[in-house]
Amino acid sequence: MDLSVIIPVKKNDETIVACLKAVCASTLTNFEVVIILDGWESLDYFQAWEKDVRVRIIPFPKSGPAVCRNYGVKISNGTWISFVDSDVLIEGNTLAVALHSLSENGEDGLIGSYDNTPSAPSFVSKFRNILHHHHHQRNHHKAGVFWGAFSIIRKKAFEDVGGFDENFDLPSIEDVELGIRLANRGYVIRIDADIQVKHLKNWTFYNWMRTDIFLRAKPWAVLMYRHGNQAGNHLNTDSLEKTSALFTLLTLGLLLCGFTWTWLWALVPVTILIFILTQLSFYRLASRKFSFLPSVLVLHHIYFIFALTGFFLGVFSFKKDI
After folding, report:
1. I need a surface site. Which of 58, 153, 247, 288 has the fewest CB within 10 A?
2. pLDDT digit string (tens) for 173-182?
3. How does DSSP assign 93-127, residue by residue?
4. Which of 117, 122, 101 is nearest to 196 (CA)?
5. What count of Cα atoms within 13 Å lies in the side-chain half-sphere of residue 187?
6. What is the pTM of this model?
7. Residues 80 and 1 sit within 8 Å (Cβ to Cβ)
8. DSSP structure class, residue 212
9. CATH 3.90.550.10 fits 3-203, yes or no
10. SS3 (DSSP) at 8
11. DSSP classification of residue 226
12. DSSP-assigned beta bridge partners for residue 114
């Protein structure tokens, strides 16, 4: 068998219905789908696929996506493994195009990109998903990365590095950490930003804040201490993003200090302008996707505030442990 598609599904995640329909509509013929149900009590959602010989539905104790993905790989039959998140829709030719690309370039894997037309209607969802799309597009062909939402990897390479770190019991940066270990072993995984998938996640302000501070930036800071440049020059932590974070911090400092020294507020437009210039490619995209760019600018600054907050929490926790 050429390919095993592994999909971990958190309890009662209804998006799996659309995700599984999209996967099963693939033009690829020789593949299997392994659904790992993370803590589910009922299998009613999956009755429609009981007769599909390609699909295996595996009930599993609540364990988190890292454990579920590792178990899915363990029981899989494919030479290649594709990880697909349950809130992602692939196109009919996505799997075939990805495998063809890998056979042409001889690399060990690839990751795709979110598209720029997310399904969730809220402003926060649209902003967060399009920003993620932008990061992938800007880093087209970058190596040394991994991504759990949509990726394909040689099963041998995955097993050689020990799979996902199961200490990540919540969706976090287990994919980033895996990418670093793969690169350290000499395996080449690249971003193919032309292979795009649709994200169904509906972001609220609260789950955005919680995810970016505690499940991404904080553990990422620990990775940066342990792995240096490999974790610190990684998509949304490269030098351009660090510069933007610096000017976010300057802008926030000027706004706060301006309550004491009001003349400092005159400098705020300068730091905001420099911030926009460092992120000019994103704002070109945003101008086509959003009708009111000032709101995007506010959310973009909030994004960096969350990242900085998580970073400082991660630095503190790391130093506390050593």
Report:
1. 288
2. 999 999 999 9
3. THHHHHHHHHHHH--SEEEEEE-S--S--SHHHHH
4. 117
5. 23
6. 0.93
7. no
8. I
9. yes
10. strand
11. H
12. 197
